[in-house]
């Protein structure tokens, strides 16, 4: 019987677990994570407006694990032994014949004054804080922006920031407060969101102009203060700063011999294998993969990588050569609380549709459909 350990309970981890069970009904699957729950991060954008409550986004996984005969170990990974055959955790050691690392990434918090900013994708508590701060603001300025990892072009997550930006604009207009609260979008790149494709960037910037959103683009960030954003091109007032920094690898990676990319992520090949370590795979935000520099760090991409890693790991454990590769595809709906812009990009094409109310409804439907697998 194959003993397989998965680190994490995010999109990539659960997709890998589901695929493993589909392909092998006898494998002994163990998931290691602090809590047996999935946080549906894409819907954090709806917490500030009240469209979603925190409890709507927390999915307990006990039933999913039971139905799929998956053992859960509550603990945090702290290291590896025996070339990955043993996972060290805060609650003990977990042995395996094959390992999939899917514990996500870590935000880079080196920018001076970053403690003055709210990092929304850190989780539900951050989104609740945005809701509280926005609700208490009578007038002033809200600044939203994102940056990347200078050593890892793909290690960023900018899409949600456009959604928070447009969603807050819609919310403030509904509440009759938009005229008293300015919105400013900032980014060190002159064409933010270029990983979505040139057409999408053009639409995003045009939407900002249409909504009267100020733009501060093309200047390197210097830091934050409690009431301002500072860039090499100058500074501007901000009573609330919402910021998404770039991603790097988790701190526990430093306690291992895992090969690392220049940006601190785990190096993998096109089959999601970790270089030099037999039967060790990495998926999602934890990994650095070959491919175009616009390859997204998003749930859809993580799902595709999770399924690929699961299939390849089983092939390797059966003595075969893993040969499956994941499809590189950026697919998202940039939501604005009442409409959505559908964006799709592949190595061969790119598509961007104008904001449509239908796409907002589609995003809500997808949330319900996706979570049905785990509820």
From TrEMBL:
One of its GO terms (molecular function) is oxidoreductase activity. Its EC number is 1.6.99.-. SUPFAM superfamilies: FAD/NAD(P)-binding domain. Pfam families: Pyr_redox_2. Residues 3-302 form the FAD/NAD(P)-binding domain. Keywords: Oxidoreductase. InterPro entries: FAD/NAD-bd_sf, FAD/NAD-binding_dom, SQRD. PANTHER family: FAD-DEPENDENT PYRIDINE NUCLEOTIDE-DISULPHIDE OXIDOREDUCTASE, PTHR43755. This is NADH dehydrogenase-like protein.
């Amino acid at each position: 019987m194959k003993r397989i350990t998965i680190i994490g309970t995010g999109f990539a981890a659960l997709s890998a677990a589901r695929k493993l069970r589909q392909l092998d009904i006898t494998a002994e699957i163990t998931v290691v994570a602090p809590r047996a729950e999935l946080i549906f991060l894409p819907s954090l954008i709806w917490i500030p407006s009240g469209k979603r409550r925190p409890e709507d986004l927390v999915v307990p996984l006990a039933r999913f694990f039971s139905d799929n005969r998956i053992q859960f170990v509550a603990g945090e990974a702290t290291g590896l032994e025996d070339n990955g055959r043993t996972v060290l955790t805060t609650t003990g050691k977990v042995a395996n014949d094959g390992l999939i690392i899917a514990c996500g990434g870590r935000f880079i918090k080196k920018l001076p004054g970053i403690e003055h900013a709210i990092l929304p994708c850190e989780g539900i508590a951050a989104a609740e804080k945005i809701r509280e701060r926005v609700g208490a603001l009578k007038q002033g300025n809200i600044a939203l922006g994102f940056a990347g990892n200078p050593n890892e072009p793909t290690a960023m997550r900018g899409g949600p920031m456009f959604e928070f930006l447009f969603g807050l604009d819609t919310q403030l207009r509904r509440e009759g407060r938009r005229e008293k609260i300015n919105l400013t979008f900032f980014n060190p790149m002159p064409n933010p969101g270029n990983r979505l494709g040139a057409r999408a960037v053009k639409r995003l910037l045009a939407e900002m102009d249409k909504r009267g959103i100020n733009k501060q683009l093309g200047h390197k960030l210097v830091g934050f203060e409690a009431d301002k954003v500072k860039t090499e091109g100058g500074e501007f007032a901000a009573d609330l700063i919402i910021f998404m920094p770039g991603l790097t690898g988790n701190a526990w990676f430093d306690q291992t011999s895992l090969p690392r990319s220049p940006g601190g992520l785990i190096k993998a090949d096109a089959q999601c294998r970790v270089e030099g370590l037999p039967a060790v795979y990495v998926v999602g935000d934890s990994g650095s993969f070959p491919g175009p520099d616009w390859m997204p760090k998003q749930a859809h991409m993580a799902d595709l990588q999770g399924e690929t890693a699961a299939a390849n790991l089983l092939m390797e454990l059966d003595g075969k050569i893993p040969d499956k590769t994941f499809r590189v595809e950026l697919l998202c709906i940039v939501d604005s609380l009442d409409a959505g812009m559908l964006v799709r990009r592949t190595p061969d094409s790119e598509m961007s549709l104008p904001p449509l109310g239908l796409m907002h409804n589609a995003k809500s439907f997808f949330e319900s459909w996706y979570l049905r697998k785990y509820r």
